[in-house]
Amino acid sequence: MTDLCASFNRRQMLLGLLAAAGTGTAWANTAWPNKAIRMIVPGPAGSGGDIFARMLLPPLQSSLKESLYVENKAGANGIIGNDHVVKAQADGYTLLFSPSSSIAINPIIQPKMPYDAMRDLAPVAQVGAAGVLLVANPATGFKNLADMVQYAKAHPGRLAYGSWGSGSTGHLVMEGIKAHYGLDMPHVPYKGTAVELGDLLANTIGVGFMDIASPIPHVRSGKLRALGATGSARGPALQEVPTLTEQGYSFDADGWYGVFAPAKTDPKIIDRLNADLGQALGSPEMKAKFAEQNMLIPAHKSAAEFSQVVKSDMALWQQLAKVAKLKVD
After folding, report:
1. Between the CA of residue 155 and those of 123, 144, 230, what are the distances in Å?
2. DSSP per residue, 194-238
3. Across the chain, which distance is largest between two alpha carbons, in Å?
4. 105: three-class secondary structure by DSSP
5. How far apart are CA 285 and CA 282, in angstroms?
6. CA quadruple 194, 329, 95, 196: dihedral, nearest 10
7. What pLDDT digit, counting tens, does each position of 232-270 carry?
8. Cα(62)–Cα(75) distance, rounded to whole angstroms?
């Protein structure tokens, strides 16, 4: 009887140890992924983020052997979509594809944030590097930054500019330009680039900052004119458009898109996603597709390295916000 009890106790102990060992690696024992993965884009369909996120779906589906789909949740310069991912289950089935402005700038200028990006989101991988594009309706007659500055100086308060939201990269950059040149230009914030683009094409608003990709067909067709771009280099699809630095306003900071997951997502899932994204972005076909959309693909970074990029960019944008004395409209 004693031997039977001892044997039973040993068996129970062994089962308990196996169960305890499995709790931290459940994803490995339950094959991940085993259902569709959704990629939240905190902007509307047709925006730059939407374009690049959808480019990544086919190679990721191929490597993960599971379907992925984009879900657009626009508004509040990405806060609505980002917050949705923060509150999602950290199981690897809800990811975020967000621009740098939404991650690095919002915490600086928004008085009350529903989440802490560095605490509540786990950086997975950087996707692309580029600036933002200053565009104008041809009816303005502007051909470059100097033309816009000259007109705005001569007509204080009359030239309004658009951006894809209060606190967006475009908003911050233009406020810096205004401070540098002493301009009075009212800000018109839009809920995403698609609505702003429509108003620029209709000449409802004369100038605005846009993402680097979505205005390209309209620039090429002559319906819009690109006045300049931020960033460290000219865009690969618009090599004829000089950077703002080349035109006398120094602004070399590159923006990026990034993939994030809820903070408590298993590190093994994050590493798997990082590796698969690195493979997808490293292909010649993907580099060519990104170049067509005016976006460079930098050297691949680990999740930890990308986390450091996010931290350093937060410090950079915080300094720029102070210089521009930026306030959310």
Report:
1. 44, 17, 25
2. HHHHHHHHTTSSSEEEE-SSTTHHHHHHTSSEEEEE-SSS--TT-
3. 100
4. helix
5. 9
6. 0
7. 889 999 999 999 999 999 888 888 999 999 999 999 999
8. 31
